[in-house]
Amino acid sequence: MTIYIVCFLQLLQDELNRKILDSLLAFIRKSVSTFQRGTDDWVSRMRAHEIPTAALVLGVNVPDHDMTFQCLSDQLQQSVTPFVVSVQATECAGQSCRVLERLMGTSVSVDNEEEPEQCSTNVNQKRVHCSLITLCNWYKTVTKVCSYCKERTSVGKDMQQHPPIVVIFKDLEAFNPKVLQDFILICSRYVEQLPLMFVFGIATSPSTIQHMLPHSVSSLLGIELFQSLSCTQHLASVIDKVILTSQFPFKPNGKVLQVLVSIFLYHDFSVRNFIKGLQLALLEHFHSQPLSVLCCKKEAALVHATELSHRDVERLQQLPSFMRYVEEQGPQEQVELLTSVDHVKEVCQKLLKDLCKYHKNYYTTLRCLHILTASLPKYPLGKQIRELHISCLEKNVWENDEYACAMQLLRMMAKDELTSALQKCAEILKSGKTKKMRAALLQLDNLLSKFDQPAGEDLTSPGEGLQKKTDLFQLQKTLLEMKKSRRTKKMSQFEILRDQALEFIDSLVRSHLAPPESQPLYEVCYYSSSAVLRRHLNATPRTSIQTALSNPYHYLKNEDLRAEDGTVSNAAPDICIVYKLHLECGRLINLYDWLELFHSCSSTPTSARFIQAVSELEFLGFIKSTKQKTDHVSRLTWGGC
Amino acid sequence: MMEQCSYPSIFIYGHRATGKSHVIHTLLKELELPYATVSCVECVSVGLLFEQVLLPLFGSDSASLLSRSPSLSDFVRVYKQLCVQASAKQTRYIVLDRAELLRDMEANLLPAFLRLQELVEDNVTVILLSEIVWDKFRPNTGCFEPLLLHFPDYSKGELQQILSEDSHPSYSPELYSAFINILLGVFYSVCRDLRELRHLAALNFSKFIEPLEQGKVKESDTHKLWRNIEPHLKKAMQTVYLREVSSVQWEQQLQMEEKEAGAVRGLSAHAHVELPYYSKFLLIAAYLASYNPARTDKRFFLKHHGKIKNTNFLKKNEKPPPQISSLGTLQLLNQVGHDDQLDAPKYKCAVSLDFILAISRTVSFDMVKYLYDFL
């Protein structure tokens, strides 16, 4: 089960990256053909030769970039050129020399791997100076050799003769601007001999290129912009494919999903970390809930249900949702459920099938509701489907004020907007494969066809009652009657239909969008310990260090160390004693006094151990040496922070 | 210049694309003089510089006589050795392009090159090409004064003449020079760089002659041709000249019909950065700390005002993890102060006011109230 999800997530990542990788590959191929065009026509002779550069804007979620670049590098090596190099800013800190070295190193090693029969390559490894002249010479020899080699099937003829050298700068902002400028200046002098191509990985925005490179340098590059999917879109598609689907039985509940999404939005925008959090939730669920053996595909789950052990059946009977179900049954049924194991297994199978159907109906209805409410002003039910999903998971969504507000706004919708939204709903209902969804689809199709009919008679013409000659009193009476009738005027056919459609949607919502807690056996599929997840994902190292130091029993579980609150036994490690003592001091701590106290507290006091403990405390960041007074250290932490 | 000892060093300076290296190289090639030309940008180490000087003058084996990381005296010694084997009948010339980078290399390099003739006792002249005036080169310890030559910028007429020489083979030179006239009229006020102008001419000429090819105008109707090309040149000034779009994209745009071409968004149009929630607050706090004087902090962050931000954090009961280093990597925060002050690192906010106002708007924090400059 877990392996299946993991593989699926990997494929999803690849698919999401595919669009941008395809456009990058197209760009690189186009640039290569421009290079091949040669200097035949007048335009090519006259214009400046620029280095084709792709500026890839990936977003601030830097942990996700590695995967993208690895993917890109692999695809390039397979289909375009073997000469691909990725450089990171940390490797090229000082000079552009390092960049060239990496370039040559990788290219040379690629060469050695590719043609083992060409052992007599003339690269004199000892005197390889990192200069572009050497690279040019090497490139010429390699391409001459390549043209005699066997053909690469997926590469065009142009590329075979002159495969481009692609340099990928993984994190552009972190590069020293001077180094980058020098590198570009050097490369542009050799652009006619070496078909170089750059890919800039940008985290913030493309205007950083203009900040880092002056015009004299950026005029040597032909920069084209490629934007990847924004992180929120990425997240939305991951949630759509993995959580809002009946394909995977494992589901996080509202609080857990809220924790994961808030870590994403507030901390790092990293989809990779979100997926890791989801995997952690999956593991925790299977680890802590013994009945999760039933959390798998329907057929396998039904088989497992018949094979449940006695212990498991007892656990099943003690689940709160199952107990609620039992209470709803008649007395005869209740007795059977509490005593007969076989009956319980049968009922369990039925409930699992019901749970499956519930999920299918739920997601279809959720998507319909989202389509209708996603374009309302001020987004009462949230702009993204995940917000709607979380509010549905937590309680009955039809009891929310926002739901009432959304329904009111829908009652005021115009005809064409409403019909187009309802048609999209019909599409979604078509894909739901349960009986109830099919019935709903019939009803909706009915309604839609009524919308298309021409409008019938509308309002009664108001001018009827005023034809006759009347006196003042009669006129007043007729006018009052008309005013009353106008208040309860007959609605147009469209408005009647609109109300009918909205009632239909409302009934769908009330019957299918109940939170999962209302379904028996939901604990099998839903993971709900958000506190555990939060503790694992939002690590607080400071708290754990302080716990370890003030209460060593918590981690060491040594009986000698068990101490009542506040005190520290003599057998505790030195660093704990020293820590406890320093808590009682003020801002500046006198080392000699501290040493004396330590000698009195510790069982085996020696100065060497004291000094070791103090330096460990300094390393952990609790104290710092200070020049304000000799033989004093200053304390850095206060209170319980 | 041929057999007598020539002047040891010459310094040529002038702006970009004033013809310095072009003239020198043409002269040296025409007169078939032995020379070596090196661009100091490529020479990240002095060894590379020496190698690239020796290789063209003395053949490919000469560089192997140099040790792995040679010093100046090694270079002089090897040079003398090679001279003995291949004595010069003519003056040798060493051309050093982007010579201002020599100042950043070892301190003895520049004075040595100025006096190279004396050091190696050979008939060699060093020509230094640079965009910076000689006064900024002169080392403190004094040196041999080279011959100074200034290449002034081209005037408009000269640019017209030079650019008109590369006329397109299928069209008359008069037509081309009319085109150059129009081009200069639009671009001369912002750009005098010959290379750049030639590049722009190449890109836009096809659009210029489009009406001619379509048969709508004759060659002599310069006014109509001008009317056709002028809006495109104006657009080019804002896009391809500034490298907002690449030249390839520009050419594609020109080829598309007017109706189909949508606006290609230039690079600087995309200035928006999506940041996580806590990072936005960190950045706002950093901006306030960087740009408000310290004494005003107390005034702004009194009990009711400043606690707004703090209580947000306390309510959530979570510590924001240290994101300062990641903001530093994105170049939104710069480290100020020495690297070895690890216990008290200082950071400064490196974003513009517009950027920070946009960010504070997304978190509904009224930034302007807290900025000292806006009181």
Q: Give the radius of gyration of chain B.
A: 30 Å
Number of strands of chain B: 7
Low-confidence stretches of chain A: 110-127, 150-156, 457-463
Taking the alpha carbons of the first and last residues of chain B, their distance comes to: 70 Å
What's the mean pLDDT score of chain B?
A: 76
* Sheet with the most strands, sense and barrel status of chain B: 5 strands, parallel
Q: Within the largest sheet of chain B, what's the order of strands?
A: 2-3-4-1-5
Q: Roughly what fraction of the amino acids of chain B lie in strands?
A: 5-15%
Biggest β-sheet strands, sense, barrel of chain A = 5 strands, parallel
User: Whole-number radius of gyration of chain A?
Assistant: 36 Å
Tally of helical segments of chain B: 16
> How many β strands of chain A by DSSP?
10
Average pLDDT number of chain A: 79
Report on this model:
The complex is a heterodimer of chains A (641) and B (375). Chain A is of the alpha/beta class. Helix content of chain A is 59%, strand content 7%. Chain A has helices at 2-36, 42-46, 65-79, 96-114, 132-146, 157-161, 177-189, 207-212, 215-218, 231-242, 254-268, 271-288, 298-306, 310-318, 320-328, 331-339, 341-373, 385-394, 401-410, 415-431, 435-452, 472-487, 493-512, 530-537, 541-550, 553-556, 574-583, 591-601, 607-620, and strands at 51-57, 84-87, 165-169, 196-202, 221-227, 251-252, 526-527, 588-590, 623-625, 632-635. Chain A has a five-stranded parallel beta sheet with strand order 2-3-4-1-5, with helices on both faces. Chain A has a three-stranded antiparallel beta sheet with strand order 8-10-9. A two-stranded parallel ribbon of chain A has the order 6-7. Chain A is extended and about 100 Å long. In chain B, 45% of the residues lie in helices and 9% in strands. Chain B contains 16 helices and seven strands. In chain B, the strands form two sheets. Chain B has a five-stranded parallel beta sheet, with helices on both faces. In chain B, helix 2 packs parallel to helix 3 and helix 6 (156-164) runs antiparallel to helix 7. The radius of gyration of chain B is 30 Å and the shape is flat. Residues 302-322 and 339-343 of chain B have low confidence and may be disordered. Chains A and B meet through helix 1, helix 2, strand 1, helix 7 and helix 8 of A and helix 2, helix 8, helix 11 and helix 12 of B. Chain A: Residues 307-529 form the Origin recognition complex subunit 3 insertion domain. Chain A: Belongs to the ORC3 family. Chain A: It holds the Pfam family ORC3_N. Chain A: It is found in: Nucleus.
